[in-house]
Q: What sequence folds into this?
């Protein structure tokens, strides 16, 4: 691992911007490779990785396991199918074409190029992929149409990617926010959404004199951070989006005093916002306008985001409490894992004095949202959410692969 | 690639600089503005980040390793270890937000006192966002007076328009080079690896670790 001068310590989207001109199509393929490598590393681990891998005839697991840093060429596997399902998502949640930043022109070009690249690759196996897609869609629909959704089966399916139009439903189920019993579902969601409104009324919609000094400074911190959340996606600059984000984050923070609001949690709310808004808004995310939505719809979306964010963070409370011990522990595990997989890289990093905390802390704090293009985040989160309780350990594997792929 | 830290160095001196101050005052923007001339909006810094800049001041080729820290209190345990061995510390505030200015005395100066190991370390007070003159609430005079109190350099700048951005790091570097002990550190530490935190105590002095 070498440090580039005049550059950031860690692989970030800013770096992509600089690299775009030289290697426009590497981003998406690098992302795919990361997920594939993770599959390789997960060999021998219990569900769902193992189940999925034994079901697949993936000849590349071996090489991925032995040397994830090699440039392994993949032609066809399940992740790509997931990706292909996602291509319709790229129409909906379109890449980050940003009207104001000059660099975004390059980015858009780059991602268009890579999409074309993917479709070229897919062309070769188009028949197979298509039949698999419709078969996968059928499986999802079958799973979701029952009176009781079998979560284990849904997890298995979702791990390889969820069709975008089913994503809101699937995510709510995977997080345990919507009950698996379909008879109860509507009632529970309705109740939860009302409960959220109550919370907002009780905690957010009050004058500052009723808040403690601590609460005021937390609200101020959230207000400072909302306008700089995913700054390269212009949709997040809309006043109504900022307001929604602020309400969600503040309400969450007040109800979780052990951690309160910690920077980075604002990032974690964004995939939920985009996914739940996609139920009501179509087309590219950059063309979305909150003005097209009724206040009721907005409050439903907010409530869903709030509860799903809560569910996600329930499993990682100590990531955000004082001194963030949960993250410290995972960074240590990552370091150990990388040493086991690739001793030379590990040694080299040590020689250079590069510490894992210096780059991996942010990865765990924001779950890689900062490191990959925003339009790919929802796909990555399909897999995260499918992992359920195992997510924390799974992150270590994803990040090890991400690190070794980047190198 | 990565050769700057080893063997034949393409710089004469190497310094470690630290950026601190409240969340949202523009520490990262200042750094990005200095490094790459870009003025894009940035997401809040998580933990610490760093960038390296090679530039020439007073006829010397310098390598600056600039550590950018998160302003939020929750990250303080992480960021506090980066004060060690810094030759320069930039305390940044936002001229349009008074609380970021008062926190320099209430919070940040105390952090420096507590964690900086370098007695001679050069400090610089920087008031950012002067491009938003109409929203200014902290006057230049107040800034200068606090800088006098702290005994440090002072400058107002704008990361957005890049006004005074280069000057800020130039003046800091020049001042560092005027202090013999820091100059000495800059010429020996540079031969070692500046990223290394813990090495400061353990490594034998004067370049014994490189080829």
A:
């Amino acid at each position: 691992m070498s440090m580039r001068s005049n550059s950031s310590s860690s692989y970030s989207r800013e770096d992509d911007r600089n690299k775009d001109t030289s290697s426009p199509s590497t981003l998406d393929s690098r992302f795919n490779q990361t997920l594939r490598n993770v599959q390789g590393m997960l060999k021998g681990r219990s569900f769902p990785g193992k189940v999925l891998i034994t079901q697949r005839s993936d000849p590349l697991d071996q090489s991925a396991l032995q040397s994830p840093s090699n440039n392994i060429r993949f032609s066809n596997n399940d992740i790509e199918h997931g990706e292909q399902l996602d291509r319709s998502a790229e129409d909906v949640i379109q890449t980050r074409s940003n009207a104001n930043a000059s660099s975004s022109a390059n980015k858009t070009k780059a991602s268009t190029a890579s999409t074309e690249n993917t479709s070229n690759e897919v062309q070769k196996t188009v028949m197979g992929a298509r039949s698999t897609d419709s078969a996968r869609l059928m499986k999802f629909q079958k799973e979701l149409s029952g009176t009781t959704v079998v979560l284990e089966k849904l997890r298995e399916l979702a791990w390889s990617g969820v069709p975008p139009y089913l994503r809101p439903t699937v995510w709510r189920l995977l997080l345990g926010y919507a009950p698996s019993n379909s008879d109860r579902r509507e009632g529970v969601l309705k109740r939860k959404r009302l409960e959220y409104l109550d919370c907002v009324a009780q905690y957010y919609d009050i004058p500052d004199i009723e808040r403690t000094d601590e609460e005021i400074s937390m609200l101020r911190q959230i207000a400072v951070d909302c306008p700089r959340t995913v700054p390269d996606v212009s949709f997040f600059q809309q006043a109504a989006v900022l307001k929604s984000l602020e309400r969600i984050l503040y309400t969450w923070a007040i109800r979780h005093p052990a951690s309160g609001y910690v920077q980075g949690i604002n990032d974690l709310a964004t995939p939920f916002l985009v996914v739940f808004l996609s139920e009501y808004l179509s087309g590219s995310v950059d063309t979305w306008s909150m003005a097209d939505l009724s206040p009721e719809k907005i409050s439903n979306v907010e409530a869903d985001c709030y509860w799903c964010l809560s569910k996600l963070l329930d499993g990682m409370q100590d990531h955000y409490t004082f001194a963030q011990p949960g993250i410290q522990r995972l960074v240590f595990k990552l370091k150990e894992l990388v040493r086991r997989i690739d001793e030379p890289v590990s040694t080299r990093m040590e020689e250079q004095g590069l510490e894992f905390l210096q780059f991996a802390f942010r990865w765990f704090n924001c779950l890689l949202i900062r490191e990959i293009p925003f339009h790919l985040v929802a796909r990555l989160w399909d897999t995260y959410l499918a992992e359920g309780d195992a997510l924390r350990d799974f992150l270590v594997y994803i990040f090890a692969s991400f690190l070794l792929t980047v190198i | 690639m990565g050769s700057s830290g080893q063997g034949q160095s393409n710089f004469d001196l190497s310094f470690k600089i630290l950026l601190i101050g409240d969340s949202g005052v523009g520490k990262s923007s200042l750094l990005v503005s200095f490094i790459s001339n870009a003025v894009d909006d940035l997401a809040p810094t998580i933990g610490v980040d760093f960038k390296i800049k090679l530039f020439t001041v007073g006829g010397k080729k310098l390598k600056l390793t600039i550590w950018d820290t998160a302003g939020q209190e929750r990250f303080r345990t992480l960021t506090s270890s980066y004060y060690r061995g810094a030759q320069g510390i930039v305390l940044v505030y936002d001229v349009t937000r008074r609380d970021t200015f008062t926190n320099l005395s209430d919070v940040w100066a105390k952090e420096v006192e507590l964690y900086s190991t370098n007695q001679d370390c050069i400090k610089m007070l920087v008031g950012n966002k002067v491009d938003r003159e109409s929203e200014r609430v902290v006057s230049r005079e107040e800034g200068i007076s606090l800088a006098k109190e702290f005994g440090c350099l002072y400058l107002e700048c704008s990361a957005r328009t890049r006004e005074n951005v280069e000057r800020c790091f130039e003046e800091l570097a020049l001042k560092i080079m005027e202090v013999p002990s820091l100059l000495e550190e800059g010429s020996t530490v540079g031969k070692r690896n500046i990223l290394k935190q813990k090495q400061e105590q353990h490594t034998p002095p004067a370049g014994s670790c490189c080829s």
Observations:
- The longest helix of chain A spans residues 182-204.
- The two ends of chain A are 6 Å apart (CA to CA).
